[in-house]
Structures are given as C-alpha cells and as structure tokens.
C-alpha cells in the first residue's frame, strides 16, 4: 500500500480530566487493512498520557480488540483520532470510548456491611510464581504475601462477566518501563524469565462500571499490603520491589444511577470535531 492509495479522515474528542479506554470494537463489517491512530490535539490546557496495550505501537489500533488507555490530567484536553483506509475500503472503524470508573471503592469509614449486601463476583486469578510455576486461585490470594517469591505474570478471569463492564489492568517489569495493559482474561507479565513485576494498576471500564466496586490488595516483597483503588498505580517504596501476592474483589453496588453510556454521548464531557 502506498500513500497515494490512502483515504485519511480525522476527528477530535475533547475530554474532561479522567481515565478513558479507547477500544477497536469487533464488528462483522470491520475493515481488514485499515488502522486508527491517537495523538494529543492542541485543544484544551490539560495533558494527555497514552498507555497502549501489549503489541500496540505508535498508539495505532489495527485490529478488533486493540485498546489504549488514555489519561487526561490537569484540565480538559483533546485527542486527535485519525483513520487510514486503503483504496477500496470505506467502512469506518468501530471505535468505542468508555470512561473508567474512578470513584472510591468499598464502604465508607465507620459503616458496616448489611447482612443482605451484594456478594462479590467470581474472579479466577491465574499466575506464574517463582519456583512454583503456574497457579490458579478463585476469590483468594494469588501468591504468598509473607514470602519473597516473585509473582511474574497474571491474568484475571471474571466468571459470568456481564455485558458493558470489564476489568482493565496493567503491570510494569521495572521502574519506568513500558506498561503492559490488558482486559479481563488476558495475561500480563512473563513466565520463566525471572523478571519481577514492580507496579500494578486496576480499573473498571464500560457503561456499567459504576454499578460495581473494585477493591483488593497487592503485596510487594517485604512491604505491607497496599489497597487496590481505581486510577492508582501501586508499587513498593523504591519502585523496584517485586510483586509477590495479589487479591482482587469486585462487588456489585446495591443501587446505582446509570452513568452516561459513553463520553461520545455526553456533551458535557466530550465534544467531537470532524474533518473528513
């Protein structure tokens, strides 16, 4: 394919401060050779950080399932969305943008759980642990908090996961290294490479994310447990301590008011400018 055979179209999404996930949605009419790239646009005073999933380069989505987490900091900012279509392909890429729920998880201090409180969902954690190999646990600790055995990689399966909500997570294998990002069911980290995980982060995403609460703990070697909270990257005090144990809990909220389906449809959050 050469540049002269490309059709290029662009639009700008103006977003408020927060975390968003940009996802190439699977579709029966998805174009086969088209791609979509993300860059900061010069509208708004905020800063934009991009955290692409594993295998994605230059912030470019090329196939259904590809995703990039975008963080807007400081003030409202904008993202330039550019589509590239080769000659003969005109179908638009199905891009979905969801704001990641960053509301505090768990009960407020001083409150108690009622007897009929919603029960946590079933989470199955798969991990590769130093000297122990591949381990699977359900609704419990993956790894041993009181040891120094590396938890080198993991995935989280959400049993009976409802539509329009998912768990997103990332990890780094070294201070200031590029993050690996995944959605529920996908593996991050390594196996049998003796590489530590030095930081992790978790968040709920999707239209119904606000209907669930995310909590849990992560333990880095020789350190007390750290509480899992949305939009919070966890690491040891030096940023080099290795992850040894992980526990996650997702609990349905008793009653919720539905949030906007997507920033695309919330005019208070997002403005779209097109230039085709």
Core attributes:
four-stranded antiparallel beta sheet; disordered C terminus; single chain; mainly beta; five-stranded antiparallel beta sheet
Would you mind describing this structure in some detail?
- By secondary structure, the chain is mainly β.
- It is 0% helix and 45% strand.
- It has no helices and 21 strands.
- The strands form five sheets. Strands 5-3-7-1-21 form a five-stranded antiparallel β-sheet, with no helix packed on it. Strands 4-6-2-8 form a four-stranded antiparallel β-sheet, with no helix packed on it. A four-stranded antiparallel β-sheet has the order 10-9-12-15, with no helix packed on it.
- Residues 257-276 are annotated as: Disordered.
- Residues 264-276 have a biased composition (Polar residues).
Outline the fold blueprint.
Elements: E1 6-15, E2 18-24, E3 35-41, E4 47-52, E5 60-61, E6 67-73, E7 77-86, E8 95-99, E9 123-129, E10 133-138, E11 142-143, E12 151-158, E13 166-172, E14 180-183, E15 188-189, E16 199-205, E17 212-220, E18 226-227, E19 234-235, E20 243-252, E21 271-275
Antiparallel strand pairs: 1-7, 1-21, 2-6, 2-8, 3-5, 3-7, 4-6, 9-10, 9-12, 11-20, 12-15, 13-14, 13-16, 16-19, 17-18, 17-20
Biased composition (Polar residues): 264-276
Region (Disordered): 257-276
């Amino acid at each position: 394919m050469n540049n002269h055979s490309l059709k290029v179209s662009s639009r700008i999404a103006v977003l408020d401060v927060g975390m968003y996930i940009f996802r190439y949605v699977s579709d029966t009419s998805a174009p086969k050779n088209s791609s979509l790239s993300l860059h900061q646009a010069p509208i708004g005073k905020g800063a934009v950080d991009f955290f692409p999933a594993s295998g994605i380069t230059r912030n470019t989505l090329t196939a259904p399932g590809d995703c990039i987490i975008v963080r807007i900091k400081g003030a409202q900012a904008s993202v330039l969305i550019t589509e590239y279509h080769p000659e003969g392909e005109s179908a638009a890429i199905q891009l979905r943008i969801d704001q990641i729920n960053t509301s505090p998880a768990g009960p407020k201090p001083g409150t108690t759980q009622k007897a009929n409180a919603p029960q946590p969902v079933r989470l199955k954690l798969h991990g590769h642990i130093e000297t122990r190999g591949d381990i699977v646990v359900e609704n419990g600790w993956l790894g041993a908090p009181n040891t120094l055995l590396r938890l080198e990689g993991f995935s989280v399966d959400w049993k009976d996961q409802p539509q329009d909500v998912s768990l997103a997570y990332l990890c780094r294998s070294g201070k200031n290294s590029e993050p690996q990002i995944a959605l529920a069911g996908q593996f991050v980290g390594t196996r049998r490479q003796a590489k530590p995980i030095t930081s992790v982060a978790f968040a709920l995403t999707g239209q119904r994310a606000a209907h669930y609460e995310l909590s849990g703990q992560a333990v880095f070697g020789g350190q007390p447990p750290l509480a899992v909270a949305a939009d919070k990257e966890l690491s040891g005090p030096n940023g080099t301590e290795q992850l040894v144990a992980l526990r996650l809990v997702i609990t349905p909220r008793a009653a919720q008011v539905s949030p906007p389906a997507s920033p695309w449809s919330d005019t208070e959050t997002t403005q779209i400018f097109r230039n085709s």
